What does this fold into?
Amino acid sequence: MKPYTMDFDVKARDFSSAGESSSKFRKTLLMLSIPSDIVRRASIAAYEAEMNIVIHSYGGKMHFEIYKDKIVIVAEDTGPGIKDLELAMKEGYSTAPKEVIEMGFGAGMGLPNMKRNADTMEIVNHDESGTKIVMTINF
Amino acid sequence: MYFHSVTLDKDRCKGCTNCIKRCPTEAIRVRDGKAKIIKEKCIDCGECVRVCPYHAKVVVTDDIGMMENYKYKIALPAPSLYGQFKDMTIGDILASLQSCGFDEVFEVAYAADIVSYITRDVVKTKDYKRPIISSACPAIVRLIQQRFPSLMDNILNIMPPVEVAGKIARDEAKKKTGLKDEEIGVFFVSPCAAKVTSVKNPIGIEKSYIDGVFSMRDVYSMILDKRKFTEKKIEHISSMIGVGWANAGGESYGTSLENCLFVDGIQNVIGVLEDIELGKLDDIDFFEGLACVGGCVGGPLTVANNFVARNRIIKLKEKLNKDASIKKYIEVDFHEFMLNVKLKKSDVLNLDEDIDKAIDMMKSIDEIYKSLPGLDCGSCGSPGCRALAEDIVKGFASEYDCIFKLKDRIKILAEEINKLSIKIPPVIGSDKEVKP
Ligand SMILES: Nc1ncnc2c1ncn2[C@@H]1O[C@H](COP(=O)(O)OP(=O)(O)O)[C@@H](O)[C@H]1O
Ligand code: SF4
Ligand code: SF4
Ligand SMILES: [Mg+2]
It folds into this structure.
C-alpha cells in the first residue's frame, strides 16, 4: 500500500508560521488513527526538525510519509550544513544567535530530542550544500 | 447516549454560519438552513452560545420545579455566583439563595478549598507527569480526550469541587435527616454548560452526586426577588482560596506549586496544549486551562460582565480568611474524592480505525480539496473547504454544496442547453430542401 504523503516548504527565520507543518502533520496523524503515543513522538521529531530549518538554515522543506505501521519524516534544507555533527548532537549545544535565544529557542535539545523520539535517525547530508535528516518511527 | 446541554432553538436559527467557524472542535454544520451540532464532537464549551447573534444556541438546564420531587433540598452555589451581585456580601447571597426554597446551602467554594488541600498533598506524594493538568474544566478535559490523548495521563485525578460538594452535602444530610438517598435533592447553581453535561455523562466517576443543575441566570433573578425579605445572613465558611476558583488562576494559586501556568479562552488553551505535547513546557508544574475567558466568571450562564465579576471576586477575597477549616473532611480518607474511572480517548477524529482505509479516505479528501476554491467562506455549511472535503468523503455532503462548484456546473449545463436549443429535430418542419 502506498503511503499518505505530505510536503511543506519551510522558510528561514519566518517565526510567524514556524511549526505550522508539524502541526498539520500532527492533526493528520490523529485523523489516520495513529496511536496517541506515536502521534506525540512523531510531532516532537517533526517540530524540532522544522524549527532547525527555520532557525539554522537558508530554508528547506519537510516531507512526511505515513504507512500502516511506520512514519518517515524527511527534513531537508539548502545549507549551511552542520559543521561539527558530534558536538551538535550533544544536549545543550547550540549556535543559535542571541535574538533567537531571546525568543525562547536554542536550548540545544532539538537534535537529541529527535534522536530520542525517532526509532531511527539518519543524517544523510550535513555539508555546506545543506542538511538532510531522515527519521522513522515504527509501530 | 450522548447528552449535550448545548442545543439549538430551531425557530431562532437563521443558518447564518457564524457559529460553524468559531466552534473550536468543528462540531457544527449548517444543513437545510439550520445549524446542526455533531454530538460526538461537541465539548459543550459554550462558544457558539456566545457568538450566535440570534441567541439560537441554548444551554438546556434543569427546571427549578424539579426540586419538589425531593424532601430535603440542598443548593450548591458555584464560586462565580458571588461575583454576580453589585452590593451583596457572600452571607447575603447565601441566605437569599436558601430562601428560594432550599433547606440548606453548601458552598462549592468550600469544596474547592478541600480540593486545593488535597491537590497540595497528592502532588507531593504521587508521581504525576509534568505539567500536571487540572481536571476542573470539563470542556478542556473533553478537548484533551479528543485532540491531545497523549496528555490524558497528566490530568490530576481529583474530583472537581462541585462533585466533592455534592458528595459531602449529601452524606451529611443523610446522617442529619435520616432520609434515604433518593429523598435528598442536590442542585448545582451553574455558570457552565459543560458541567450540566458532566452531571449527566460523568467524567472520571461512575455517577454524579448531583441531581439537577440550575442555570445561574434563572437563580439570579430569584435571589434578587428574595433579597428584600431575607434578613438573616448565612455564615460562609469558604476561604479566599476556594472563592478564588471563580477566576482563572484561582486553582493554580491554591496548589502552592511554584511554576503554575493558567490560560483562559479555549483557543488559547489549544495552543498551549500543543506546546505541552511538544515538551516545550516541561518546566511547568501545574497547568490550569479554562474554556471561558476569565475562567468560570465568564461562563455562558453567568449574568454579570465577566470583567466586572472578576473584579468583585478579587475584592471579596481581600476580606476572607487565608485558610478554611477543613480538617474534619480530610482526616477521613480523602481517596473518596479521587477520580476512579479511567479516562478514555475519543476517536471522533479518526477517519477509520483501519489505518489503510483512513489513508485512502485522506487521499480522496486531498483530491476533492484541490478542486474547491479554498475561500473557506462557509456557505456550504461546513466550517471551511477542507472540512467540506472531509464531509463529502464521509458521505455527509456533496460537491455541489459548494456554491462556486454549483455555479460552474450550472454554467456548463446552461451552455449545453443553449447548444441543444439551436438544434432542430427533423420532425419539426422547415422549408429547407431535403437532400438524399
Ligand atoms: N538544519 C540545520 N542547519 C544548520 N545547522 C543546524 C541544523 N540543525 C541543527 N544545526 C546545528 O546543530 C546545533 C544543535 O541543534 P539543536 O540540538 O536542534 O539545538 P538548537 O536548535 O537549540 O540550537 C544548532 O545550534 C546548529 O548549530
Ligand atoms: S450563529 Fe449558528 S445557531 Fe446562530 S443563527 Fe447563525 S447558524 Fe444559527
Ligand atoms: S471555564 Fe468554568 S464555566 Fe467555562 S466551561 Fe470551564 S468549567 Fe465551565
Ligand atoms: Mg533545534
About this structure: The CA atoms of residues 320 and 361 of chain B lie 58 Å apart. Residues A 48, 52-53, 55-57, 77, 80-82, 88, 93-96, 106-112, 131 surround adenosine-5'-diphosphate (ligand 1) (CB under 6 Å).
